[in-house]
């Protein structure tokens, strides 16, 4: 964004309409009004929606301003912490009255079915009201959910694995042994006097508290993205920028630069062993051993003072793959930040000018999360939003006010940018489903699932083709949920895409991000699906919330990507006879590459469905330009 | 000859049960079966070639119907038929060219058997000669005076006809059979050595530091890459694993063991990686007459990605994979749906597999096709044992191996 650009004024709530539009009232900002179709009819009639409606950014937010996370009984405006079930939000029959039993069902969005129970126990008051959560919080500085019944204060190291056990779904014997070894080692080093780790940890704390300069710089975006924020920033903050850039693991750090990697390693909380047999083409991306990190991190749970327990827990779940999917990860991260903000206090109970090191803390958390798993672009956007909010707090504000304001800001972000956006997207997308359609989707996208369920509940007759791929097989979960709801499904693997595409009438895809050259950055394989659909002249509809848009451009999938665990490729689940690659690390000529994302060229995309309307991929830069700063402003 | 019949039946059952798969294995087994069939076949004294062709056609039809998707079976049957025809013709020409007497007698048989008894033996001989010889300018010119000379030859050889007839017959029968079996042996030899011939061409196509992508596994591809490696080329190979059989794992292991830099990728990452690939080299299941390829599932996706990035898409195929048929709706008609258990665990989804919602139709379908059709415009080059060819040349290459009469292998309806 142009730094000199005049910030958008907030006075006139006019609505600009672009493209085709019907003379109907545009989306108004009230969260429940238009999104609560009690009768199936309104979304079906395509006329009621103009293809592109661009309300002025401020408009949406003004109605929701007085949201507070603390008034838990706030009906539909209240956001359940940790549990978000898309189907309940999306279904046309669902009312705005989200009762308790809705919340207590922890399925869908964040959690896989099989890990549901575990996750529930982990979520800090996941289904509870915020008030309850606060109580538990003030009771102990440690995380409430994890230490179920455990001693709330200082715990011996032996207890660490016990309490953290439920984090893992299964603990194999080997893992347990590794854990024990790690503990023993930790104990030994502790008894040796002046345990290095704790010293180091405390050093980090003091340094973090003393001068925020040394702390990690988190957001993947350029600092000067918000002109207003920059102008209001504290002078000290300005100086820190340079320092941060120097010695902090930038999310897009180039890992072939050895000096930086060394530096980053020294700082890192997570022990990263470099993977053997690294793929030459991807040396610029982190390639670490995956197996050891989780156990190692778990064993260190109680030694890590600088990282807030809630953040720590979310990091662990990112690492274990417990939370996946762009929206789920983003929500989990923001909620963890909320927890940490609640617990945050400056030393002196005064105004913000003194001892305000929250940005530094957040930076530390973010770099910790990056070590667990590289941030997605949507998370980067969310962090940028949060930091802008922090930077914009008036200096005279008292601490409690500031905290309350931040908490409500985060809540609003989650609510409007993710939950409401999804509802609007569903409303748009459902108009594109006709009776007799065969809809293809790839992998498991939360918003696409909501679309299918919504269309199904509207009584549309259609079939779903779920295309899946190794190694995650996310489609199986989606298949199970859709079939459970009575949607007729066909399941196949990605190689058969050319075979099945003959019968398909529309392709619905989710996206991790949409870049401003129209490239859709999504789960690996999406590009192939879109390509084949394009070849067969089947429309490709990409569903993506606008907060995932990014002004970066990318042409291929190699310059920026994320590498998954290579061992996941060597094993073929359910086929024990395919074991050629069991000892793949022994041969130095052999590498396994587990890409996570790929970039779909914009010409394969027929339409991108966002909450701002249905746009062609060429209009993505427009959205980015017009609304790129919006999430700084809501 | 009950043993041959039992052999045939056994092979049929194996084909039907899909115990034998892979075009090379089936091709070889089919050729061996036909060889033993021919060697045991008793031929009548008259018109051995026609009888043999009919017999082979009868067996061939059964074999083809046993597994219509395995096009190699049909290819081999047609090639054997072609061999029989060729041997018959070459014997005939030899007879016509050398001994006019025997040629006379031989041709008389043809006339007896044929539908045109009115034609004189000499005229048939002339016609045969003109068709048998390669069409050169000389034969075209010779044609006219030859036909005028016909009556004289026929009249001169008339008296000695009766004596030499029976002896000639025996010789001819044995010779035909012998030649056919020799030729089938050659065919079997060709099939088993085709990948060596293909691999010899590897250095012509792979240069230093090349990045090659392949999907799944094929013996031919393995040999091809290894041959290039043995010739001291150093290059890098990306292997897509090739769901649902994951043969790419085995290929990757073998290539790495041979010292090639090998990277295994998932099938979904093909599009992401293809921009860094110089060449796609894959095997095929069958090559159709229009230059289209019936290939292991997933290759159409790879070919499209290769086309998008202008990466050459090279198909390695032994000659036994060339099918003289033109495909019609090959994605469906020349495809085979495999067991869903390769994709979904039955136990895992047993609760969803029931007939749901009272509508009578199951809610869950699983599609697991075995093959993909790659249209000819996506293929850059075919490399066969005889060299490299364009897809557009395939129809012409086929005429070397198949006779147009055999395209439809069906017993002549005995009316």
UniProtKB/TrEMBL annotation, chain A:
- TM ranges are none
Q: Where is the composition biased (Polar residues)?
A: 84-96, 112-123
**Where are the residues of the annotated region Disordered?**
21-270
What spans are recorded as compositionally biased (Low complexity)? 185-219
The record's GO molecular-function terms, alphabetically, read:
translation initiation factor activity
Sequence ranges of Basic and acidic residues compositional bias: 167-179, 221-255
The organism's superkingdom is given as Eukaryota
Enumerate the subcellular locations listed in this protein's record, separating them with semicolons: Cytoplasm, Cytosol
Q: Provide the assembly information.
A: Component of the translation initiation factor 2B (eIF2B) complex which is a heterodecamer of two sets of five different subunits: alpha, beta, gamma, delta and epsilon. Subunits alpha, beta and delta comprise a regulatory subcomplex and subunits epsilon and gamma comprise a catalytic subcomplex. Within the complex, the hexameric regulatory complex resides at the center, with the two heterodimeric catalytic subcomplexes bound on opposite sides.
The entry assigns this protein to a family as follows: Belongs to the eIF-2B alpha/beta/delta subunits family.
* Name assigned to this protein: Translation initiation factor eIF2B subunit delta
Automatic annotation (TrEMBL), chain B:
Species this protein is from = Forsythia ovata
**Coiled coil feature spans:** none
> InterPro entries from the entry?
eIF2B_beta_subunit, IF-2B-related, IF_2B-like_C, NagB/RpiA_transferase-like
Arranged from A to Z, the UniProt key words for this protein are: Cytoplasm, Initiation factor, Protein biosynthesis
Q: Species lineage, top-down?
A: Eukaryota, Viridiplantae, Streptophyta, Embryophyta, Tracheophyta
Give one GO term, molecular function aspect: translation initiation factor activity
This chain belongs to the protein called: Translation initiation factor eIF2B subunit beta
Q: Tell where it localizes.
A: Cytoplasm, Cytosol
User: Region Disordered: which residues?
Assistant: 147-171
Superkingdom of this protein's organism: Eukaryota
- Subunit comment: Component of the translation initiation factor 2B (eIF2B) complex which is a heterodecamer of two sets of five different subunits: alpha, beta, gamma, delta and epsilon. Subunits alpha, beta and delta comprise a regulatory subcomplex and subunits epsilon and gamma comprise a catalytic subcomplex. Within the complex, the hexameric regulatory complex resides at the center, with the two heterodimeric catalytic subcomplexes bound on opposite sides.
Q: Which Gene3D superfamilies match?
A: Translation initiation factor eif-2b, domain 2
Q: Which family does it belong to?
A: Belongs to the eIF-2B alpha/beta/delta subunits family.
Transmembrane region(s): none
List the GO terms this entry assigns under cellular component, sorted alphabetically. cytosol
């Amino acid at each position: 964004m142009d730094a000199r650009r005049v910030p958008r004024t907030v006075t006139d709530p006019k609505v600009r309409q672009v493209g085709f539009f019907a003379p109907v009232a545009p989306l108004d900002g009230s969260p429940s009004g238009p999104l609560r179709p009690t009768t199936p009819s309104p979304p079906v009639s395509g006329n009621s929606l103009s293809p592109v409606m661009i309300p002025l950014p401020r408009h949406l937010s003004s109605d929701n301003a007085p949201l507070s996370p603390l008034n838990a009984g706030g009906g539909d405006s209240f956001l359940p912490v940790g549990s978000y079930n898309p189907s309940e939000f999306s279904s046309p029959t669902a009312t705005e009255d989200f009762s308790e039993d809705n919340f207590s069902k922890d399925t869908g969005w964040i959690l896989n079915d099989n890990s549901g129970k575990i996750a529930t126990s982990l979520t800090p008051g996941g289904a509870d009201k915020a008030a309850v959560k606060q109580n538990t919080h003030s009771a102990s500085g440690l995380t409430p959910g994890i230490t179920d019944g455990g001693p709330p204060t200082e715990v011996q190291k032996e207890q660490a694995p016990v309490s953290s056990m439920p984090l893992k779904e299964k603990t194999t014997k080997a893992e347990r042994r590794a854990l024990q070894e790690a503990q023993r080692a930790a104990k030994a080093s502790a008894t040796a006097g002046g345990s290095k780790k704790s010293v180091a940890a405390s050093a980090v704390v003091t340094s973090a508290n003393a001068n925020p300069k040394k702390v990690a710089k988190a957001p993947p975006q350029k600092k000067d993205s918000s002109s207003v924020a920059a102008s209001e920033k504290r002078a000290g903050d300005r100086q820190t920028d340079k320092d941060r850039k120097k010695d902090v693991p930038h999310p897009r750090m180039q890992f072939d630069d050895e000096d930086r990697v060394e530096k980053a390693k020294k700082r890192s909380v997570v022990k990263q062993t470099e993977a053997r047999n690294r793929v030459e083409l991807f040396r610029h991306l982190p390639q670490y051993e995956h197996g050891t990190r989780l156990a190692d991190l778990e064993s260190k749970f109680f030694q890590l003072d600088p990282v807030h327990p809630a953040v720590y827990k979310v990091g662990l779940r990112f690492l274990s793959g417990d939370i996946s999917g762009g929206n789920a990860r983003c929500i989990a991260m923001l909620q963890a930040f909320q927890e940490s903000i609640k617990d945050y206090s400056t030393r002196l109970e005064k105004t913000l000018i003194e001892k305000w090191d929250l940005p530094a803390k957040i930076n530390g958390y973010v770099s910790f999360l990056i070590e667990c798993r590289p941030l997605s672009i949507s998370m980067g956007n969310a962090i940028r939003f949060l930091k802008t909010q922090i930077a914009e707090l008036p200096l005279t504000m008292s601490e409690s006010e500031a905290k309350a304001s931040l908490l409500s800001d985060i809540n609003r972000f989650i609510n409007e940018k993710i939950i409401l956006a999804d509802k609007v997207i569903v409303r748009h997308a459902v108009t594109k489903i006709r009776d007799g359609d065969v809809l293809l989707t790839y992998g498991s996208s939360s918003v696409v699932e909501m679309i299918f369920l919504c269309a199904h509940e509207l009584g549309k007759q259609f079939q779903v083709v779920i295309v899946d791929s190794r190694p995650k097989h996310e489609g199986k979960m989606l298949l199970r949920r859709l079939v459970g709801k009575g949607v007729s499904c066909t399941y196949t693997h990605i190689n058969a895409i050319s075979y099945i595409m003959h019968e398909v009438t529309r392709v619905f895809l989710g996206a991790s991000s949409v870049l401003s050259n129209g490239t859709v950055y999504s789960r690996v394989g999406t590009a192939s699906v879109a390509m084949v659909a394009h070849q067969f002249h089947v429309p490709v509809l990409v569903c993506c919330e606008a907060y995932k848009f990014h002004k970066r451009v990318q042409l291929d999938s190699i310059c920026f990507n994320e590498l998954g665990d290579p061992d996941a490729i060597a094993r073929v689940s359910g086929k024990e006879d395919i074991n050629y690659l069991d000892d793949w690390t022994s041969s130095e000529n052999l590498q396994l590459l587990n890409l996570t994302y790929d970039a779909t060229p914009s010409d394969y995309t027929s339409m991108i469905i966002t909450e701002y309307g249905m746009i062609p991929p060429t209009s993505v830069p427009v959205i980015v330009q017009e609304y790129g700063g919006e999430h700084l402003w809501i | 000859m009950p043993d041959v019949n039992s052999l045939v039946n056994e092979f049929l059952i194996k084909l039907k049960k899909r115990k034998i798969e892979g075009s090379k294995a089936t091709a070889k087994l089919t050729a061996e079966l036909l060889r033993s069939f021919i060697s045991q076949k008793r031929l009548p004294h008259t018109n051995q070639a026609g009888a043999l062709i009919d017999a082979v056609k009868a067996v061939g039809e059964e074999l083809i119907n046993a597994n219509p998707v395995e096009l190699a079976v049909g290819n081999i049957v047609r090639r054997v038929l072609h061999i029989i025809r060729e041997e018959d013709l070459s014997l005939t020409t030899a007879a016509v060219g050398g001994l006019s007497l025997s040629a006379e007698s031989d041709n008389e048989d043809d006339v007896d058997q044929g539908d045109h008894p009115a034609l004189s033996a000499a005229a048939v001989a002339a016609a045969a000669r003109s068709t048998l010889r390669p069409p050169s300018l000389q034969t075209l010119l010779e044609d006219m005076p030859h036909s005028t000379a016909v009556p004289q030859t026929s009249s001169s050889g008339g008296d000695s006809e009766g004596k030499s007839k029976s002896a000639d017959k025996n010789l001819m029968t044995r010779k035909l059979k012998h030649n056919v079996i020799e030729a089938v042996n050659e065919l079997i030899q060709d099939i088993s050595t085709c990948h060596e011939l293909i691999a010899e061409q590897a250095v012509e196509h792979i240069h230093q530091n090349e990045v090659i992508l392949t999907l799944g596994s094929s013996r031919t591809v393995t040999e091809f890459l290894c041959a290039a490696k043995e010739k001291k080329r150093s290059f890098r190979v990306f292997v897509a694993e090739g769901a649902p059989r994951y043969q790419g794992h085995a290929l990757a292991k073998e290539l790495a063991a041979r010292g090639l830099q090998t990277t295994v990728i998932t099938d979904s990452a093909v599009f992401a990686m293809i921009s860094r690939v110089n060449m796609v080299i894959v095997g095929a299941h069958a090559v159709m007459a229009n230059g289209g390829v019936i290939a292991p599932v997933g290759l159409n996706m790879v070919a499209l990605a290769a086309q998008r990035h202008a990466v050459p898409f090279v198909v390695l195929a032994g000659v036994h994979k060339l099918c003289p048929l033109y495909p019609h709706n090959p994605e469906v008609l020349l495809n085979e749906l495999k067991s869903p258990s390769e994709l979904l665990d039955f136990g895992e989804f047993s609760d969803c597999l029931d007939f749901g919602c009272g509508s009578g139709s199951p809610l869950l379908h699983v599609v697991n096709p075995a093959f993909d059709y790659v249209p000819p415009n996506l293929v850059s080059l075919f490399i066969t044992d005889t060299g490299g060819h364009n897809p557009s040349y395939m129809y012409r290459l086929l005429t070397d191996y198949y006779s147009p009469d055999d395209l439809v292998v069906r017993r002549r309806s005995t009316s």
